[in-house]
């Protein structure tokens, strides 16, 4: 059933007589055969995919975050006189690197002809959103400070809170997603997912003053819509209820299948909210609640009071 | 409701005529305006916050861990004759770097006058706790070995288990928290949170022989108190039940709001324990249990037996 | 009860008169005493453990992944003519580094005599499995693409999905586990756990076309057996129900205590499946379900329908 | 006469009232003015020169040297089975990086149209010469071993001797010079000059079995021609006698103005040989000799015997 | 007479019975005794010298050179719009690092009280000279291009010529020397000496349009004064004739003891010019000439015509 | 006569039809053939030479220098209390790395059997010489300070002077040479040669208080013997007069062929002293002097007074 038995029965461990050099050559050649078959299967033989690099995008996002918050996320000795030069130089470098990655995605997606011009235009439009992103993040940081009794200062929140890290990545990724490079956006989202355990699909729309506390295990789906002043705790899922299939048996992709959460809603740890339902404004969803239907504004849902 | 619509309607993508150099200059200037407004709002104009560096603190904790366990977490070729020199040099360097970070926090907190002397005194007191920290960690490692049927050796536990990584960070962070640098402590806690998915507030008091298995999603709040020989599984929450607000509407900060878990308690995966309640010694809390009231010693709580 | 009180009462903070140099010397000497006591306790005085290095193994796995998928996980500018040289050189280097780590584990485990030859033989057997690992991973990537409505291309899946990262690590770790280096295997599993929040014990047997979506909080135990075309969501546990103790009071190690999940099963987010039970082929387990008994093929289990 | 006086009289040191931020801005602006004036002067305003990178070329030459002599100049642990993969992968990478640098030079030289194709063609031709370069270098290493009484082995010579380092760089640079990228070639020559104090213009033609002992201060001019089995010591100059000017007063560039040194000649330390003269085969030139006329074969020239 | 005999007779190699750990401890303790004796001898016991760092200064000079010539010595992808941000940020960082090093020298020189303010003032004065330094260097680059028949472009000269590297370092070091940090200046000069073999004391005053060809072995003394449009070749010495001693027998330090070279002088390779003599404007000094007396303008000195 | 013509006539540049992949494969295969022929020629087929690494040895020497002079050549923030730990840890690491390199040389030299024990014994003997090396270097630094009118402090000399860099390397290399690892010693000497332009064979015996000023171009041969308080200037050669050949025509290796320079001798710039002659104590050799016979004590030799 698994690869295990095959390994255990493998007689080569006891009697190892094949020459090692042949062996590496043999493995290289086997891997090439599998690779070529896979490329052929995907109609990519002769033009293997060159995808955006996660490593480069991680650097880009770190640089953008430092340009957005130079005093708190920038280098240690930054002085007042040097700060605009730092911001300008960091943006210039990061946007150039981002353009390279965007170009890769556009080429990979088949738009070869004017990938270069498109990439520049797209990144320019992205750059123009940065002040708006900073303003939204300021509202998020304030929401975290006000929403957590353990928070001692606004600055602590920016430096420490994984929820803020996740939202910085999301607000950047969401703009890129909307501008037409969903793979680049997704890689940025997964960088945050890996760092924080918070998994927000870049397609999700999230309003100002958003706060996720603790955060590990939070999942927010592609078509979720979240209003202003919403607060989530760890392990909350805003997911899809079911995955309709097409007649061919393949999943229908892209339909609206995740919840709408209106302004001023709080969702406590472990709650699971599934499907294209609406959580009315001002509602509170208790810990571990399992919810698959819409609720009106100002509802208070709690788990069965059996404990 | 979100930033998306704004982007999609942004007409600049089609007609991009502004000179790029002007654009970067424009963005730099917009970001400065937002930054200055934010600094003014926080009464920090002219003295922007210089916070402890997460990157430096990560290095400090790695160095301290290597000094505490040089054979297993130190460099590869360490010899018996060189081990004390390694420990001494590593401590000397790590404590100096820690002093820099502590000084930053003290200055940030407004204690400018004798921040330097205070930082040295504080780190000296911290250093004096290191042997005690090592002894506690030895008890934790042993508890992990004894508590997990899959553990094959004590050394494996130290190198592999995310629960141990989290506890190394916590025991260091907790001493710093008690000594008066809660931001430094919190950053260290979040480094562990990011690596392990285990979120322990540095304020939590945890006794010897503590073991968290698997660990992803565990949350332990600021005022939690945990006795000796306690064992937790993944996704356990020791949280607050509610967040009382002051008359002004802001959250009350710092009150005792998390559980007390007495000696020899086991809490299975996904259990949620909320509020300043007491779990009596020797109790067992079953998986996914939701618990908001105190229970006497030797209690055995399980989820509704509906499955 | 905790280290906190001790620290707070520590009188050294107020009156710090001891010379600092003496202090570091004192701490070094205290740490040595504790270390020697610990080594003696483990019968390792004079031969402290030299364990495999997590850092080196992380590099090895990254290199193996790049050799398995050079176009998508290899370096940026790789050309068609250079690809086999890249694969061959990367394998040669990674396997040599792996041999060093395997040798360490064998020596640590007490097999000093022919550790060198054993390590080479073992790594050769491991290398021979690489083409098979690649084929299994191709099936996993395809399963992810087909199982997630948000996936836009097979290549996106390989680069982005944490479930794929976890499975790459698992398939490598599992072969090493079966070949007799469980500690090396475990460290590799924990590297993935830290990156993805997905905790798969290297002993678990997993069939082809396996897909974990989102993934944070998933735990799969040592003796779990998973068939083909199985799909899991975040926070699913395939765990042990209880931990039998030997007469001496120590836990029984190594017995079959985790579930068997047959082909074509889907387990939704947060479900907890415990004990050596069997989930019959084609079954669906709903979100948050708590399951401790076997179910026949094609079962559909859902949580209490109270929502 | 120098910048000193200006600095000493600079009144700004005593009375420093200008705001620092303005100052950096002022310097940046002054530097821009000078830069623009300089670009305008060179007719490069709007297309500033992008030159080959010394840092990248240093990496390329190190990689080529490792590919030519993998056992002695390659990485430490190279095994017999992996050696061809190392050579192939190193060549593939180094030649790709070299192509980038060559493309820059071609573009800088004004050949914009098909710079990319030309660069590839040129580097392909360069690569085809590598086996010939290795053979020549083998003859040089042997000559060094046979020519120095202090040499204990052929391998020592390759690893230690600055003369060999210089010749490795030269033989690579010379082929590039002949193929039409003199700037790239010159940068490589200057890398060797900096490391060894030996300054060989890449235009110089040098036959097999060439040896320079000690080497510091050796200068070999652009149009020098050196036969087989020639040996030079430190501080030898093969230079130009005079620099004829054109009517406009500018130096005539590129004429044949350096010596021809025939086969089997030895030139001892500090000798200066100037102009398009011929040193006949088998001749010996003594230390510190100053020579500006041709000499027949088998001549033995020594300094005035005044000491 | 040397350390050799002692080593060869050392009986410890044959009979090595001392414990190694003791040995390292013994060496550490011996080195401490020698160190303390040396510090005591220099009246520095208790305040060991903290000198400027060569490594940091090398970085500072590289950054300043990139800020002065961003297109040719800056990073690869620099765009027109980003260039001033690069220059400003690079200056800001480099000047801050330079301030740290200058502060160290001032403290080392005994000026403890206001070392910080002095360092800032001094570096500000230095920064104000940068545009002037760039202008001088432009004249030097042009002189190199016009003076070397092998030079193909002005840009090649800047990137390749060791003489230019040496002059960039010198012009920076000279301003620092004049401003009162001779040790910092000297370290910068030695960085160039190591890279190029050209040894220019930072005290030397050098006019515009200065060119050194090849350069290895050039030595220019502390009190040398060089006019405009001067050209030197390799191994030229502008040195002191004798070193007068004070009555106490120690050397007199700081007197004017090196040559004055007036405008438009050319000095060919290997010429040695010693003492406070004057080389009249427009003169030519032939190769290997040894000169210890002043000569009038337009002199042409050649070596004895014995060859 | 040179490789040039071959390249220029190479027809492949015009008509490039061969597939590139074949080409790299072809070059790899050609290089293998040449390599195998070369190994066969040196009787090393099947056991290619693994030589000491220049890069590692450079690190070792830097570490030893920092351990010898921790305040001036060690890391920036070193504190009094940490200094012995730094020295001990740095020595422990550097000596371990040195042992690896020594082992390589012993194995390369054919002593396979007990290379490991020999390497440890040898490095232990080397380590025991370190205090003596430090004392000699202290005398050298003092000699430099007293011998150069431009030197302002003893500390400046240690940090700046290339002559001191060269002597640090030499005193380390000489002990290793005497202990039986001449290749390791030679590589260390060449590291200094590359940095300083000063070429001292590790076999040369040099007494205390040795000073080389400026230094570029100095060459000191293998069998030279230099007394106490000797001072050399740039471009001085202490070389061999002739190279006697054996009957077979190969050079005689290892005979005494370089000068003996007695105590208190000064040799000015550019002087050339050749052969096994003796320069009597207290003598002065003028600049550019060419000397091939012994001279009695207190001689003063100057160049022909033609200038």
From TrEMBL, chains A, B, C, D, E, F:
Its EC number is 2.3.1.30. Gene3D superfamilies: Hexapeptide repeat proteins, serine acetyltransferase, domain 1. CDD domains: LbH_SAT. One of its GO terms (molecular function) is serine O-acetyltransferase activity. InterPro entries: Hexapep, LbH_SAT, Ser_AcTrfase_N_sf, Serine_acetyltransferase, Trimer_LpxA-like_sf. Keywords: Acyltransferase, Amino-acid biosynthesis, Transferase. One of its GO terms (biological process) is amino acid biosynthetic process. It catalyses: L-serine + acetyl-CoA = O-acetyl-L-serine + CoA. Belongs to the transferase hexapeptide repeat family. This is serine O-acetyltransferase.
